[in-house]
Amino acid sequence: MEYTFIIVLLPFLSFLFLGLAGKKLAPRVAGYVGTAVLAISAALSYLAAWQYFTTAKVGGVFKPWSMDFRWLNFTKDLHIDLGMLIDPIAVMMLVVITTVSLMVHLYSIGYMHGERGFQRYYAFLSLFTFSMLGLVVATNIFQMYIFWELVGVSSYLLIGFYYTKPEAVAASKKAFIVTRFADLGFLVGILLLSFYTGTFSFERLTSGDASLFNEAGGVTFMGCSVIGWALALIFIGGAGKSAMFPLHVWLPDAMEGPTPVSALIHAATMVVAGVYLVARLFPVYYLEAPDVLVLIAIVGAVTSLYAAVVACVQTDIKRVLAFSTISQIGFMMVGLGVSGLEGHEGLGYMASMFHLFTHAMFKALLFLGAGAIIHAVHSNEMGHMGGLRKYLPVTRFTFLIACLAIAGIPPFSGFFSKDEILAATFHFSPLLGAVMSFTAGLTAFYMFRLYYRIFWNKETRHDHAPHEAPRSMTIPLVFLAFVTLVAGPIPFGKFVTSDRAEYLIHLDWTVAGASVAIALVAIALATLLYRKESAIPDRLATSFKGLYTAAYKRFYLDELYLFVTKKIIFNGISRPIAWFDRHVVDGTMNGFATLSQRVSCAIRGFQSGQVQQYVMVILLGTLFITVLVLFI
Amino acid sequence: MDYSSFIYLKEELSLIAVIVILLLYDIFGSKKSLTYFQPVACLLLVGHILLTCCPAPAVLAIFGDTPAVDQASAGVYPLFSGMYNLYPLGSIVKSILAVGTLLVLLQARGWLESENTVIRRGEFYVITLFTLLGMYFMIAAGNFLLFYIGLELASIPMATLIAFDKFRHKSAEAGAKYILTAVFASGLSLYGISLVYGTTGTLYFADIPAGVTGSPLQIMAFIFFFVGLAFKLSLVPFHQWTPDVYEGAPTPVTAYLSVISKGAAAFVLMAILCKVFGNLIEQWQAILFWVTIATITLANLFALRQQNLKRFFAYSSISQAGYIMLGVISGSALGVTSLIYYVLVYMFSNLAAFGVISIIERRSGKVTIDDYNGLYSTNPRLSVVMMIALFSLAGIPPFAGFFSKFFVFAAAVAEEYYWLVFIALLNTVISLYYYLRVVKAMFINKNETAIAGFRSDAYTRLSLVICCAGILLLGILSVVYGSIHHYSLGW
Amino acid sequence: MEKLHLEYYLVVSIIMFFAGIYGFITRRNLLAILISIELILNSVDINFALFNRFLFPGQLEGFFFTLFAIGVSACETAVAIAIIINIYRNIRNIQVKNLEQLKD
Amino acid sequence: MNFLSLFVLIPVLMMGGLFLAKNLKQIRLVATAGASLLLALAVGLVVAYLGERAAGNHEEMLFAAKCLWYAPLNIYYAVGVDGISVAMLLLSAIIVFTGVFASWKMEFLEKEFFLWFCLLATGVFGFFISLDLFTMFMYYEIALIPMYLLIGVWGSGRKEYSAMKLTLMLMAGSALLLLGILGIYFLSGESSMNLLELAKAHIPTQAQYWIFPLVFVGFGVLGALFPFHTWSPDGHASAPTAVSMLHAGVLMKLGGYGCFRVAIYLMPEAANHLAWIFIILTGISVIYGAYSAIVQTDLKYINAYSSVSHCGLVLFAILMLNQTAMNGAILQMLSHGLMTALFFALIGMIYGRTHTRDIRELGGLMKIMPFLGVCYVIAGLASLGLPGLSGFVAEMTVFVGAFQHTDTFHRVFTILACTSIVITAVYILRVVGKILYGPVTDKHYLALTDANWYERTSTVVLILAIAGIGLAPLWLSDMINGSLLPIIQHVKL
Amino acid sequence: MDISIQETVFFLLATVIVLFSILTVTTKRILRSATYLLFVLFATAGIYFQLEYSFLGAVQLTIYAGGIIILYVFSILLTNQQADERLEKLKNSKVAAGIVAAVAGAGLSLFLLLTHSFGPSRLAGGEVPVKAVGTALMGTEKYQYLLPFEVISILLLACIIGGIMIARKR
Predict the structure, then answer these.
(1) pLDDT for the residue numbered B71
(2) What is the H or E stretch that residue A501 is in?
(3) Using omega within 30 degrees of 0 as the cis cutoff, is the peptide bond preceding D146 cis?
(4) Which residue of A25, B56, B175, D309 sits 20 to 30 Å from the alpha carbon of E70, by its own alpha carbon?
(5) Which residues have a Cβ under 8 Å from the Cβ of D408 and sit 6 or more positions away?
(6) Which listed CATH number (1.10.10.10, 3.30.1330.30, 1.10.540.10, 1.20.120.1200) goes with E1-81?
């Protein structure tokens, strides 16, 4: 399996090449180079997947394959290795990433055509792909952290691609800092975990060897075990990347980046890194800190519901998709949170991974479709769209497929994965299941609201007729739509499960039927409200003004963040500190100087120029010293 | 009557010979021949220095007659039955002083050749050398009488040097201030000596320690005596004459006062404290502790504000004296080595600075720090010399001042004077500030009307080159310190 | 002289000494200051002679010190007076208050 | 004379060459040749060092040589290097090299500038090769004093004030240090200034309690230890480019290196007992510097405060007294040295074009000078600890090392120190966003040109070094680790 | 109370010295001051005579009274044109400072002197023969003063040169 190394390395070489030589290349060539390299990577990934899933099974369990080389030594036990860990989820992620990335690369040739910094764009895309691939094949948690940071930076660079646009710059900054803040949790979590277990290695951590955690046994902090804390902190890192409530604020803003970037990073790959992280460490979570898993489930559910509600009222199509992404990642988190480890208990895990897979495809499809629409109308606002079905037929159909998939309508892929999550959730807690079902309904509603507002509804005037995107953009759409269509029945449990053993999927029809029913009702409602131009939505908005505005404003979370950063950190901490530094600390230092000068001026009269005074001082000095020595 | 002892007074006798020759030359030389007065004087002094530098035993060996070495303190040859002590460290200090005097004389040439002073040129040389001779006797004295006469020989003619520019009121005023305070201080000192005599019954250094019992009167006597030397060293609170006199005196005389006179006094003070009042070590260490702190701190505080460079250097030299006291207070061999070394380095540094001040004052009449603004743009070499000197005074490596400061601190720390060294060290920061003020004026400040560029005379240049060489090499060549240390081992 | 203790003489010399100091500090004429100094030196001379005579009559150390001190004080006086006269020539005045140009 | 002395000799010879140089061309020739020679020598030293170690030479100090200097005080001119000094020498050589290119175009007094520059270099190199406390201290001061004139003459803004403040504060630190050194010398009972001999001797614990703070604070002033760091913002802001580079890049490392070599190494008991005080101070430095940097508007101030934070981390890590953290400290010194030098070089180049360093007046520079912009972003990313660049390696090593302490006190401060990576991100991105991105704020900027060849040389060399450490840290880390062993054994009591 | 002649002489001299010392420093006229000084010096000489240091007394009379006082008188007369001390009143603060300094100093010295036990007086010897003085001045043995004698001659020479240099017109 050594060649898998090349999968990761190729994008990096491409990045170096494009980054250093890009300026001298024609833009088109740069695009081709990037795409070609990705194509090789993708091909190798498929090869690897095929080879792995066909050969790696030993005794009914997929055996991971790994290679390592030492990168940095910390202590006797702790060292960072860089390497490749090939196991089912890694292979799955390789496939997802290379596929979506390839599609995005291809799509971007058309979408980014004529943009300034085209070469740079491709360099960054390659960098991102490299980082993401490195992340998923990480053999140890520190390697993951390394690539974790790298994807963060590539995301930053890509969100800020239009660096002359202040909004883009602000969004990129926000994205980076919020995730960085979460990464702090991740880092501390790593430090804690590694300190007590003495290893970073995933293989050792997830081996189920309880002796690793012996040292931490009994160490508690604020009533929870220290490993629990470590895992919770690590989850914070994942929550940041995966835009879990309340760390999701960066994701909607990140839509300022080019749309294909949103498709790649902020829909399909990077944002699921958190899910992947939890999945990677799942055995540890399950065995050492089940409480944290419950926490994860709750956070996932809250996020999911929250995002779905907000998505219902957004008017920027990319924002809607962004909230939809947040919501769907919430589903995945819930799936993991409710899952058990072995056998049928592991349904949630399997479902979550499956959903990750299908979601990557259809969400990328949605974003790329949105890109095609934006490409056509040069706007993100729903208000500027409507009635586009005539102009963009390919986009429309692929978009519809994706909408159906995400709404959970069989036989589209989303139905299968989501349904399993719901089943697992109901199995875990009916209440949570109900919430998630409701959220699924909301999902169907806002997706079709989106669909209708774009392609149906009232047609807006355009300066020039919108036209279908070029071939390079539509091919990816079609390809992804195809995957979305066919991915559903994939026997996913054969490949990716919590215990790496085979899992036989059987649909729970009560749950499935109910959810499909809910979805259909929601779609019907959306059709009613938005298919034609109608006053009902506005009326609803005015009658539930408070709720509507709050949801539109995303429940004021951004304002809260702004308040915390601007008012508290910037004005409340930094300014006083800077003032303190200049006036108190530095003032003290200057004070010494001033004091010396003052004293110097104050005593000048002492040197009066009168010789008699001098003599007097000599005499008194002598007497003083005498008295001092003799009597004191 | 055994007059053979005289032959061992090679330093003093050769200096007297130089003085006499110069005196006669000045009186009887024709006007034309007097134009060579300067070179002749300097050459004679060089000869004298060479003779001084020859190790005493080597010279003594010529006469084949080595006097008995005092066993109690190795290396000391008492002459005139103890009236006069011949010892290597003394000779080293004498030769250092002589070199310093030579440098001063080199720097003084330009000034002496000016119209007003040329007729008093001969006197300047003779009197300067007389004061030097006085210091020699101070250093070599083995008896308070000889010490006292030496002290007066070093200070009374000095007053005439200070008042040398007699038509300039400031010079005259400085002279008067100096002689009045000097006489007063020597009066106190004399009173102290009288009480020392009264309580010990002898004036011979060698015999006094036996009589020093530490009675209160004796301590008072000691303190009164101490005032005389503290005055010469300008330790606080006996320092107030210094700035006024330094400012008023002709610059070469200021240089001479600040270096030669001070260096001699420092060494003599240490010698007498250790050799004569060794029994009072607790008392004089306590005194020096506070006096040193006061000296360094107060002088630094005063120096902060000075504009006139000569006054500035007066305060600087007061604080330097404080640092010298760190060597004295230790009372150890390390201390005396450091002290001599410090004096040597200080001499080169201060004379370099005064050389620059002197030549600039002569060429432009300017002596304030502000006048030096932009000096580097017009007189780069002088500025660099000045900067090196200032850095050396501030104790910045690789200049010798760093080493000398380090050694005096080491000497004091060796005797566990941590707080004293701590305060002294903090004061180095203040002193660095004011030294940098001058550097700043020369290098950083801009000035449209900077002192015009000029070429200094060969004598000044020679002296500055010697000084700079000294500053640069003394630290790096450890042999100087090593040899001083070699002779101080018997301390 | 049995009844005349050393201390009697010493008291006299101390009074002379500090009278001199008082004079030095208070007089305004440079020559008057110089005269005060003579008192100081003179009192010291007495001290030496006294100690020699009363305590250590074996050798003449104090005696000679006095002898030399008288000579030295003569020198001092001569030079000081020369300087004062020079000042007088410069500014036609020998008040000590005129010696305050140099200060700070 | 052993070849380490060349590190001192070359700058001195350069000074001689500069003194004789007649025109700008010759000055540049001398400076470039000398700096290249130094760089080559440093690289050669690294190779030679690794070779010796690989050959199984386990002496604590390699290439050691000494000759008696001041016999009465038993002072030697003693040189020798271990992995740590080798690393620092390499850093210094790189920064001197790039500094020469960064000051390719001086406006006036080129010769003097390079003379002082070489004196500074002499001090820096001498400090790192010294094994004798006396020479170490001497070189330390030699390195400090040129700063005064370099800032005072060639600086900008409130240069006189800043130069004076910097010099006085650093000299006050060195005054404390001197007392500490003398204390060590006399109280160790060894009457030796040699580091290795002193380490074998035992300084009485009681004495350590007062000497340690003196030495630590003395060096700490240069390492921007709170609250003695205030020279840094003003000093850096006023200094000319190359001087800022050298000062932040190398000179501040003297502080950390000294704390480590002298304070910790020679006084292990006091280090163990008093570390907590300084951990608090350095912890404050780390956070405080970062927070202060957030609100600054002058690029150099931002960077200066950032240096306070980063150098605070160095001292913080040293005080953790374990091998990993100390290794991290050394790596952080290297990393901070390189990236801060890069920062200052870039700021200098930007300032040289726009004549302002106020981030409120700058904007959109990425479009106008993409090369500088990209370099600035890289420097920024290195500063905020992006993997693949040096900052990450250093910071992670520090954090992992610091986390080896299990008590709450250390934990809390470690986590506090960790938070600095977030704050760092905030101010770095703020600056990058303001000055490089967004619309161009001043039409005049449109006419500005991108970097020249010499500027490119300077930045590229630095970036290569940063990325080199960031990508392949193992050899460096192992080299340092090997040399830390004896020290750690010593400190572990 | 039998008061010997010695005592009478001493008290007489002491009175003169104390009285005129104080007058010397307090009188307003400088010429008087010089005259009072002369009296003090005479009385001092008297003390030397009483101590049987006749040679010293003689030197005192010749050098001090004969030489120095004359010098003073001449210079006072030379400079007395405007320097009329009576025109200005002494500043009270200065007087107070002087008195404080002098009294404090005197008090301290007296205290220390009078509490010090000098040991028994060993009055002996009688008059010092002039020949012994001469021998001591020319000898190099211990308690002989050839070297100081030579050095003081140098001092005198130096002062002569210096004095002339300052005092002469050019």
Answers:
(1) 46
(2) none
(3) no
(4) B175
(5) none
(6) 1.20.120.1200
Residues of C in contact with E125 (CB under 8 A): 53, 57
Residue A491's pLDDT band (cuts 50, 70, 90): confident
Chain C residues whose C-beta is within 8 A of a chain B C-beta are: 17, 20, 24, 30, 33-34, 37, 40-41, 43-44, 47-48, 50-52, 55-56, 59, 61-62, 64-65, 68-69, 72, 75-76, 79-80, 82-84, 86-87, 90-91, 98-99, 101-104
pLDDT at B69: 54
Q: Rg of chain C's alpha carbons, rounded to an integer?
A: 17
Q: Which of A603, A629, A630 sits opposite B301 (nearest CB)?
A: A603
Chains that touch C (3 or more CB pairs under 8 A): A, B, E
Domains of chain C: 6-98 (1.10.287.3510)
What is the interface size between B and D, counted as CB pairs within 8 Å?
83
pTM beyond 0.90, yes or no: yes
Per-residue pLDDT at B82: 86
Q: Tokens 């902060």 label which residue? A: B304
Domain chopping of chain E, boundaries: 1-81, 139-170
Yes or no, beta carbons of B418 and D179 under 8 Å apart: yes
Model confidence over A564-592: pLDDT tens digits? 888 888 888 888 888 888 888 888 888 98
Q: What is the DSSP string of A315-373?
A: -BHHHHHHHHHHHHHHHHHHHHHH--SSGGGGHHHHHHHHHHHHHHHHHHHHHHHHHHH
How many angstroms away from the CA of C38 is the closest CA of chain E?
8
Name the strand (E) or helix (H) holding D67: strand D62-70
- Mean pLDDT estimate for chain D: 89
Domain boundaries, chain D: 3-491
**Secondary structure of chain B as H, E, C letters:** CCHHHHHHCHHHHHHHHHHHHHHHHHHHCCCCHHHHHHHHHHHHHHHHHHHHHCCHHHHHHHCCCCCCCCCCCCCCEEEHHHCEEECHHHHHHHHHHHHHHHHHHHHHHHHHCCCCCHHHHHHHHHHHHHHHHHHHHHHHECEHHHHHHHHHHHHHHHHHHHCCCCCCHHHHHHHHHHHHHHHHHHHHHHHHHHHHHHHHCCCECCCHHHHCCCCHHHHHHHHHHHHHHHHHHCCCCCCCHHHHHHHHCCHHHHHHHHHHHHHHHHHHHHHHHHHCCHHHHHHHHHHHHHHHHHHHHHHHHHHCCCCEHHHHHHHHHHHHHHHHHHHHHHCCHHHHHHHHHHHHHHHHHHHHHHHHHHHHHHHHCCCECHHHCCHHHHCHHHHHHHHHHHHHHHCCCCCHHHHHHHHHHHHHHHCCCHHHHHHHHHHHHHHHHHHHHHHHHHHHCCCCCCCCCCCCCHHHHHHHHHHHHHHHHHHHCCHHHHHHHHHHCCC
pLDDT tens digits for D310-368?
999 999 999 988 888 999 999 999 999 999 999 999 998 888 888 888 888 888 888 88
Domain ranges within chain B, ordered by starting residue: 3-486
